[in-house]
Amino acid sequence: MTQDLTTIISSATKTVEISRAMPTVIIGERINPTGRKAVLAALKEGNFDMVRQDAVNQVKAGAVVLDVNAGVPGVDEPALIQKMMGIVMEETDVPLCIDTADPAALEAALSVYSGKALINSVNGEERSLEAVLPLVKEHGAAVIGLCMDDDGIPETPEKRLQVAGKIIERAGKLGIGPEDIVIDPLALTMGADSSAGILAIESIKLIIAEFGVNITMGASNISFGMPDRKYINSTFIAMAILAGLTCPITNPMVAQVSIAIQAADLVMGRDDYGMAWIKAYRARQKALEAQS
Amino acid sequence: MSAILEQLSAVVIEGDETKSPGLVQKALDEGFTAKEILDNALVVGMTEVGIRFKRGDMFVPEVLMSAEAMQTGLGILRPLLAASGAEMLGKIVMGTVKGDLHDIGKNLVGMLCEGSGFDVIDLGFNVAPEKFIEAVKQHKPNIIGMSALLTTTMRSMGHTIKALEEAGLRAGVKIMVGGAPVDREFADRVGADGYGSNAPAGADLAKQLMGAA
Predict the structure, then answer these.
(1) Which of B56, B99, B155 is facing A73, going by the closest CB pair?
(2) Does the CB of A101 have a partner CB in chain B at under 8 Å?
(3) Which among A10, A45, A139, A248 is most buried, taking Cβ atoms within 10 Å?
(4) For residue range B53-86, what is the model confidence (pLDDT) as tens digits?
(5) What is the ipTM of this complex?
């Protein structure tokens, strides 16, 4: 068993440590127009109210890092991501996860960021490795590595491990250590293939046994096409935390999911005296009282 | 409708792929033509599946099982349909566009189109404009269907339509687009002929584009 690594990211004023010895780090997924037509329309009109709200509300709900995605078709992505990051940094002080597939937007984003960003993402495709890893090195950032390559998404945990290994090796050649690589083994939906969940879990186990790296995952996709998604998502996330997931990308405003993460941290012995759990309970009680 | 065809369409709705080939064979033995079995049992069943899915009474895994049940039945009918020269509703080439690996939505539309009586050629995911062009030349479809889940990959729909124009192939096909970030305005802007907001709507749109609904 390889030793578990600690990934450190930061904003101008805040440092976040990601490791299996610490509570789970929630990366808030909401600042993203993908699949959210209202946000897409607002961003097109230059209206950033929802970005502001999503930033504040997610941090309130327990997000420790915020993902920022500016993928709006037909819009100057480098300029938009800078603008969106500016607003998020105005409203909150948490480190950011810069989410883009466009190297020009990534470079623009990194140039206005103060702190150590988490980049979302590089994958095993040659084109991606060559475009993203030099920027990770240049800006001293950390990066999420997706377990897919020129042949698509591998169908077995062993092959996903191989892709993770390739990304870690290529990063190492540029002087980027494995502690700055967070692997995303990819959770596909159980709606299309009911073995997708266990495949993701087994991939996590293999990858951490081999490399000790931190693990992220978009934990909402797993239930696409199914009814009562929040119960599936919360159970999956707790099981994935046991397997080694450390920084899921998810929506902390879905109560079931954030409660499942808090409970999982308690079970994992990462919540001394259960203080975080009790504090969260009191906050929920207070919110209920305020409602009634 | 006869009891056997009703039974067959019920089996498609239930998604029991072990029973559908036997019932198709039985219907053939009773004297129904392949085309009658397709139109009055398999298509009827899948149409109901589309309606229930849209209503939220059926879920993706169930639709996949129904499609499987339709497929195993269609497997027996296909050679007979070809031999009899029966007219399908039309031919659709579809794929998830370049850079995008999300194929569930596209698969659902494909299954429901097939379940509406179309001949469907699925190009898979990450399909580059050149691949669509190649497929149009080879299969001569009536309709091209394109899907994307990501805001960053949907622009490939525009690229593909442009490439079809440049290749002189655009006039011969109808183009329909769909996927989470796509809307009617985007579909109009890139020059598509139609937009479906969900899988059953996509199948309905294909029928409309053929003038069949």
Answers:
(1) B155
(2) yes
(3) A248
(4) 999 999 999 999 999 999 999 999 989 998 888 8
(5) 0.80
Architecture per CATH, A7-291: Alpha-Beta Barrel (3.20)
Q: Is A224 in the B-facing interface, judged by CB distances under 8 Å?
A: yes
Q: Is B53 on the interface with A (CB under 8 A)?
A: no
Residue B180 touches partner A, C-beta closer than 8 Å: yes
Query: Domains (ranges, CATH) in chain B?
Result: 3-84 (1.10.1240.10), 91-209 (3.40.50.280)
Q: How far apart are CA B199 and CA A280, in angstroms?
A: 40
Tell whether B152 lies on the interface with A, counting CB pairs under 8 A.
Answer: yes
Q: Which one-letter amino acid corresponds to residue B73? A: G
Tell me the whole-structure pTM to 2 decimals: 0.87
Q: Provide the mean pLDDT of chain B.
A: 93
**Separation CA B136–CA B192 (nearest Å):** 16
Q: Could you write out the DSSP letters of every residue in A184-241?
A: E-----TTT-TTHHHHHHHHHHHHHHHH--EE--B-SGGGTTSSSHHHHHHHHHHHHH
Tens of pLDDT, residue by residue over B160-171, are: 999 999 999 999
The answer to whether the bond into A121 is cis (omega within 30° of 0) is yes
List the single residue in B with minimal CA-CA distance to A38. B181
Q: State yes or no: pLDDT of B213 exceeds 70.
A: no
Mean pLDDT along residues B103-124: 92
Residue A49 confidence (pLDDT) above 80: yes
